[in-house]
Amino acid sequence: MRTDTVDERRVLVRGLSTSYLEAGVGPVLLLVHGNLTTFRSWRRIVAQFQSTHRVLAVSLPGYGGTSPQPDVELDSMVSFLADFLDVLSIDEAIVLGHSSGGLIAATFALRNPGRVTRLVLADSAGLGRAVTPFAVAAALAPTWVENVVISALLLPGGNIALALLGALQLRRPWRVSLRESVEQSLALQARTVLFTSYRTVRMAIGPAGQRPRYNIVDRLGELRMPTLVIWGVTDDVFPVWQAVRAVRKLPRGRLALLIGGGHIGFLDSHVEFIDFLSPFIRDELDVPPNEGDDDRVTERGW
């Protein structure tokens, strides 16, 4: 699989200089990254599907590839996604979101159901209150702690700490190439990216976990399009039971469990992730209406 055929491009969206990866022709597959990852994290996925799809991986505002905006609220990110597609004259797409990007993708689908042909939620935020205690601690920390931590991460060697932080979200970090690890940590070692990431955590998480206004569980029944939920069984950011419950509420949902996967399954369980994703986005996987059975769960791993 060659990644040198993936182009990095730039376009102006609502006045923001916006970076994105693009490759291939065909039905559009839009990839939305989460917190503490970047649009470049999707490079292997973009390369994988360029033979059958036009694959786009957009950088959200403030995450290095795109200019920051004052507002990191969910509404603003969702409207940015719509504007990005408008600028590229794209009417509809398969949308895949990871972590906080999953919440953005699902909310976009709720507001623009006619523009989302299929939806993929990978270890998504917004599907319950539970979240890792480390995120709660970060959200509740005084502002001076935030400033100290960010300043420390910007010092020489801070990229090593960021690489270790990323590795903690992986269950099999040895499966991630050195190039990907270095590229990821260097991309995150920027003041704007770190502040945007921290602001997002503070916005979405409170003392009891994920804030109720960002919980879309009760609206999943409105998502009529086929939806694939991919989750690492050992994800320690968002527990796997949130995925199980979500699929039961989705009218046309399918659950794919990465047995050895952590929070970033598309990196540390890449082969298994592709095995699940490929038939779904190629319309080869039937997703019948929910009849309350367990036949919609597939497991793969180790």
TrEMBL record:
<feature type="domain" description="AB hydrolase-1">
    <location>
        <begin position="27"/>
        <end position="268"/>
    </location>
</feature>
<protein>
    <submittedName>
        <fullName>Alpha/beta hydrolase fold containing protein</fullName>
    </submittedName>
</protein>
<keyword id="KW-0812">Transmembrane</keyword>
<keyword id="KW-0472">Membrane</keyword>
<dbReference type="InterPro" id="IPR029058">
    <property type="entry name" value="AB_hydrolase_fold"/>
</dbReference>
<feature type="transmembrane region" description="Helical">
    <location>
        <begin position="119"/>
        <end position="142"/>
    </location>
</feature>
<keyword id="KW-0378">Hydrolase</keyword>
<keyword id="KW-1133">Transmembrane helix</keyword>
<dbReference type="Pfam" id="PF00561">
    <property type="entry name" value="Abhydrolase_1"/>
</dbReference>
<dbReference type="InterPro" id="IPR000073">
    <property type="entry name" value="AB_hydrolase_1"/>
</dbReference>
<dbReference type="InterPro" id="IPR050228">
    <property type="entry name" value="Carboxylesterase_BioH"/>
</dbReference>
<dbReference type="GO" id="GO:0016787">
    <property type="term" value="F:hydrolase activity"/>
</dbReference>
<feature type="transmembrane region" description="Helical">
    <location>
        <begin position="148"/>
        <end position="170"/>
    </location>
</feature>
